[in-house]
Amino acid sequence: MSDNKSDHPEVPDGASRPADAGPAGAPAPSSSPPAGSPSASPSASPAGEAAQRASTDAPESASTVTPGAGGAAAASAPGELPKQAPAATTPSIPISETAEAGKSAPAPAPHTEPASTGEAAASAAPQRPGAAPAGFGQAPDFTAHHPPPPGAIPPEPPRYLRASDSAWAVFGRIVVARARQMFDRAGQRITQRTLRIGVSARIFHPEPGALGLRGKTLQYLEESIAHWVMSRDVIVFMIPTVGHQGMLHPSNIRLRDYAKHLDGLLLQGGADVSPQTYAEVSPRPEWPGDRVRDMYELELLHEFVESGKPVLGVCRGCQLINVAFGGTLFQDIATEVPTAGVHVSEHYDQHRHAVTFPQGSTFATMFPGRREAIVNSIHHQAVKNLGRDLTVEAVSAGDGLIEAVRYRRSPFVVGVQWHPEFHRAGGPELLDCTPLLDTFLRSARETRF
């Protein structure tokens, strides 16, 4: 029984003893590994036990650790003096490796090569997630050469570079690409902007001696013409007359400014064209026409034509286009063309007749499969002598009177004698003039650059 007692009073009972430890006071056999080798168990010495206690989370285990010789710490039981650690270097246990207090370390692997204390600790303990890597905090070695890993540098230049490229060539390509991008964005804004179509104004002249509103000059448009254009998601502006020497409010605005900022012009119907405008005399005093509106709309028409903007004339607008290019009019169809059919009646927009599209006209292409159509008829004047550079697009089926004209020297300057804005309400038998409106707006979109 006495042989089993410990010969080392400084080692408490229950602490693990080295497996090859000899009798008390006897030196260790030569076959035992050195104290600094990795095969030595961390719990085989007081210094190792102290390090193991320091690696736990219990506060009492850390309070009993005292620094020892050679950087090792010796553990002492309560009431005993601290024991000096052996002079041999003992392995240091990294803080990242934790173990339960009192648990023995695993047996060392056989036939391991001696290694330094830091390498043994790093290889023996697995890296805990979130822990600092080995060597963290050490001073960097600026003299060491660290080449890039294989494959980090491409074996050949990028494909966007050419063999003959210089710095100026690459810079030039960048400038060209940026400029192209800016132009594309600007063009996109222009093409996607909502169209702005101007409509000429009807004029109500003041009555002599009238009081109130009838004694003022009124400018207005018929609701249906504006709604017809707006049905294609277009903004409509009524263009007023301009007064260069207005007594009340002088202005420097010209009709040319409207032609510059609007995308197209629509000449709406209304009063007769004055015979003075095409150098004739009215046979009857009740047909004087509207000379003031003629001068206003002729200037407006020429400004839009010179700007390359499209123009669509309706009824009176068709007659004005013919007069603008040197043509003349029948001042009254019933008296000047007795063989002609009836083109105006008390039924107003409910009166209708047939028209035909000549072979090769743009209307025959605009309305495919249609050589004849039904339109309304609300006019007692008509085109007589065709103006220069104008072509006939439609004629009346019964008497051959001109019902539509087109100016050849512009992308789109077209006049129709009927009122397309009234066709939808007139019934399904009337010609659907949506292709005419779409062609007009398409030209406005293409020519607004």
Short note summarizing the structure:
This protein is about 25% helix and about 10% strand.
Explain the overall architecture.
By secondary structure, this protein is α/β, with parallel strands linked by helices. The chain has a domain at about 195-445: 3-Layer(aba) Sandwich (Rossmann fold), CATH 3.40.50. The protein has helices at about 45-55, 60-65, 115-125, 165-190, 225-230, 255-260, 290-305, 315-325, 335, 360-365, 425, 435-445; strands at about 195-200, 200-205, 220, 235-240, 265, 310-315, 330, 350-355, 370-375, 380-385, 390-395, 400-405, 415. Helix 6 packs across helix 7. The strands form 3 sheets. Strands 4-1-5-6-13-12-11-8-9 form a 9-stranded mixed sheet, with helices on both faces. Residues about 1-45, about 60-80, about 85-90, about 95-105 and about 110-115 have low confidence and may be disordered. The chain is built from 12 helices and 13 strands.
In spatial order, strands of the major sheet run 4-1-5-6-13-12-11-8-9
Helical residues, percent: 25-40%
- Please report which band the strand proportion falls in: under 5%, 5-15%, 15-25%, 25-35%, 35-45% or over 45%: 5-15%
Structural class: alpha/beta
Uncertain segments of ≥5 residues (pLDDT<50)?
A: 1-44, 61-79, 85-90, 95-105, 110-116
CATH topology of the domain at 196-446: Rossmann fold
Average pLDDT, rounded to a whole number, is 77
CATH architecture of the domain at 196-446: 3-Layer(aba) Sandwich
Q: Helix tally?
A: 12
CATH superfamily of the domain at 196-446: Class I glutamine amidotransferase (GATase) domain
Separation, N- and C-terminal Cα atoms: 114 Å
Total beta strands:
13
- Helix-strand pattern: HHHHEEEHEHEHEHEHEHEEEEEHH
Q: What is the CATH first-level class name of the domain at 196-446?
A: Alpha Beta
| Rg measurement, Å | 52 Å
Largest beta-sheet details: 9 strands, mixed
